[in-house]
Design goal:
The complex is a heterotrimer of chains A (191), B (144) and C (238). Chain A is mainly alpha-helical and 191 residues long. Chain A contains five helices and no strands. The longest helix of chain A has 25 residues. Chain A is extended, with a radius of gyration of 28 Å. By secondary structure, chain B is α/β, with parallel strands linked by helices. In chain B, the strands form two sheets. Chain B has a three-stranded parallel β-sheet, covered by helices on one side. A two-stranded parallel sheet of chain B has the order 4-5. Chain B starts with 9 loop residues before the first strand and ends with a strand. Chain C folds into two domains: 159 residues, Medium-chain alcohol dehydrogenases, catalytic domain (Quinone Oxidoreductase, Chain A, domain 1); 75 residues, Rossmann fold (3-Layer(aba) Sandwich). Helix content of chain C is 18%, strand content 27%. Chain C has a five-stranded antiparallel β-sheet. In chain C, strands 10-11-12-13 form a four-stranded mixed β-sheet, covered by helices on one side. Chain C has a two-stranded antiparallel sheet with strand order 1-2. In chain C, α5 links the parallel β11 and β12. Classes of the chains: A mainly alpha (191), B alpha/beta (144), C alpha+beta (238). Chains in contact: A-B, A-C, B-C.
Chain lengths: 191, 144, 238
């Protein structure tokens, strides 16, 4: 009880818990807990057989945080930056440190631009984005869409209406852009 | 929760929710929908509220790098210890292997769906919309 | 190879993609046998993580068979069945040397605040993940381990992220005997955290979620009390 020195009532005894729950108390002793202490200096235990790793070759000027003294010896090479989103990303990394909100907000904005650019680009290929299949909504027909949602006290139901707007926005913007360009090109000229 | 703990609060609270915590419209919409916060801090704030003064909040839920509106004043005034990190996985393995061999844990109990890689879009939707009592989907690539 | 790719918020699909190559002497290429979707993958899926690029492959939970190894790899050979931690780490930097494998400084050029993670946006280093047929595994001598013969494949998959994370969460709580522990979130990590709290000697473990079916799972996962939590929590007692 917080108003007296006693602990709260109703906690079962350790004997009872040990009998009821498989493995209760197996890690009671902190010495048995692998992350206690959290920092433990043991460089030879990791399997690394180098003091500093070899440098991975840089296939393009790799964007990096300005809080790094130099490029890390190993890095990911997925999806190089390209297009306007790529330029925004490279600017965010070059100009702002991780400490600045502008760094992250610019990267988030670049993500949105990337989605629009990708949808536009996909229209020019044989594999355009298909919002029906890619959102997986077809699974609604076979995975209890109604019983999963109705009658349950789920906290997410009262903002679900926002989801189609968020999903559809880059798609709608891309389609709108194409429509605008097409209309401009195809509009009959006044003589 | 206060009633459950005789109005004291818990000794330890573990946040295993992360960035898409729900239960507060303003927080969830500004964070998860509009992406103006690094993550919805609802679970963090409820953790700060439900732990006792002097207690510990452990955070393993994932959050993004942008700021979030956390009740830091309450955490300070209550004298909390906040401990958190992404888990260093391999350090846990020797001990967890022992626990599994002793029969204390059967991790695969949480798997609810087994879906081919080609249907990954459905897998994500079912998991995201929490359909069909989904807890953990496993993906099977064709080459396997 | 076939690989999952991100196409924008709430949109993913499977495409033909080049197989990953050895880019560093200690890389391995792993043919994925099983992968999983993590609750944190949903943050990527919803467009919440900065620098999530269209075309990236997600997936930081996977097990598989070693297909190729780089010239400096000593501990693995093609054909080995391996489980791979979701952390990408070098084993030799300030943080790795002190056991903080999730905070490696040598693998993520994009951000110093976070280590390397497979398929978790460029904020976590820009590595393609394991929801694909093949995946590049850096520092193959450090991270991956051969799956023990006695271990179930699904168990090995859950050991790449969800179970250790829940277990670690319980350790961070410094639980002493008889403590009252509350776990927010009855997803896989929360369920494992709750069970881990019992392993550490908790006196009571209360699991909270707004989804009743997850609380039902928590009940059979050896927890004591559980509460549903949208805006008006109600508690149910075992």
């Amino acid at each position: 009880m917080p108003y007296t020195a006693n602990k709260p009532s109703g906690t079962p005894s350790s004997v009872e818990l040990r009998a009821r729950i498989q493995g209760w108390g197996a890690d009671l002793d902190p010495k048995d807990r692998p992350s206690v202490p959290r920092e433990r200096f043991d460089p030879n235990s990791t399997g690394a057989h180098w003091d500093f790793p070899d440098q991975q070759p840089e296939p393009w000027p790799r964007e990096r945080s300005i809080e790094h003294q130099h490029l890390t010896p190993v890095f990911g090479t997925s999806t190089p930056p390209k297009g306007m989103s790529g330029a925004m990303r490279q600017y965010a990394y070059r100009r702002f440190s991780e400490a600045r909100a502008a760094h992250w907000l610019l990267l988030m904005a670049a993500d949105r631009v990337d989605a629009i650019e990708a949808h536009l680009r996909s229209v020019l290929t044989l594999h355009p984005d298909n919002p029906i299949t890619e959102t997986g909504v077809l699974s609604e027909f076979s995975h209890h869409p109604v019983s999963s949602r109705i009658g349950k006290k789920r906290a997410d139901l009262h903002h679900n209406w926002l989801d189609p707007i968020i999903v559809g926005a880059p798609w709608a913007l891309a389609v709108g852009f194409i429509w605008f360009i097409a209309r401009t090109i195809l509009k009959p000229q006044h003589r | 929760m206060k009633r459950t703990t005789d109005f004291l609060g818990a000794d330890v609270v573990i946040d295993a929710v992360g960035a898409e915590a729900d239960g507060n419209f303003l927080q969830h919409v500004t964070a998860a929908k509009l992406k103006l916060q690094g993550g919805s801090p609802i679970a963090l704030n409820w953790a700060i509220d439900s732990v006792r003064k002097g207690g510990t909040v452990s955070v393993v839920g994932a959050y993004g790098p942008l700021f979030s509106a956390v009740k830091f004043g309450d955490a300070m005034n209550k004298g909390l210890t906040l401990r958190m990190n992404q888990c260093p996985v391999k350090r846990q393995w020797p001990r967890l292997f022992q626990h599994i061999q002793n029969g204390y844990l059967k991790p695969s109990d949480v798997v609810t769906h087994r879906i081919p890689l080609e249907h990954i879009a459905e897998a994500y939707h079912i998991f995201s919309a929490k359909l069909d009592d989904c807890i953990k989907p496993v993906i099977v690539p064709n080459a396997a | 190879m076939r690989a999952m790719v991100y196409r924008g918020p709430y949109k993913v699909r499977v495409e033909e993609k080049d197989e990953p190559r050895i880019e560093h002497p200690n890389d391995a290429i792993v043919r994925v046998a099983l992968a999983a979707v993590c609750g944190s993958d949903l943050h990527l899926y919803h467009g919440m993580m900065p620098d999530t690029r269209v075309g990236m492959t997600f997936g930081h939970e996977f097990i598989g068979i070693v297909d190729q190894v780089g010239p400096s790899v000593q501990n693995l050979k093609p054909g080995d069945r391996v489980m791979v931690p979701f952390n990408i780490y070098c084993g030799s930097c300030y943080f790795c040397a002190r056991g903080l494998y999730s905070n490696c400084h040598n693998v993520n050029p994009n951000a110093t605040a976070v280590g390397g993670i497979y398929g978790y946006s460029h904020t976590c280093g820009g590595y393609d993940g394991g929801q694909a047929e093949y995946v590049r595994v850096p520092f193959a001598d450090v991270g991956p381990a051969i799956i023990p013969d006695w271990m179930d494949q699904d168990d090995a998959l859950l050991l790449t992220d969800a179970l250790p994370t829940g277990y670690f969460g319980a350790q961070l709580g410094d639980i002493t005997e008889g403590d009252t522990v509350i776990v927010f979130g009855a997803g896989p990590v929360g369920l494992f955290a709750a069970k881990s709290a019992w392993l550490m000697g908790a006196g009571r473990v209360i699991v909270i979620d707004h989804l009743e079916y997850r609380l039902a799972k928590a009940r059979s996962f050896a927890t004591r009390k559980h509460t549903t939590s949208p805006n008006t929590p109600t508690s149910s007692w075992k």
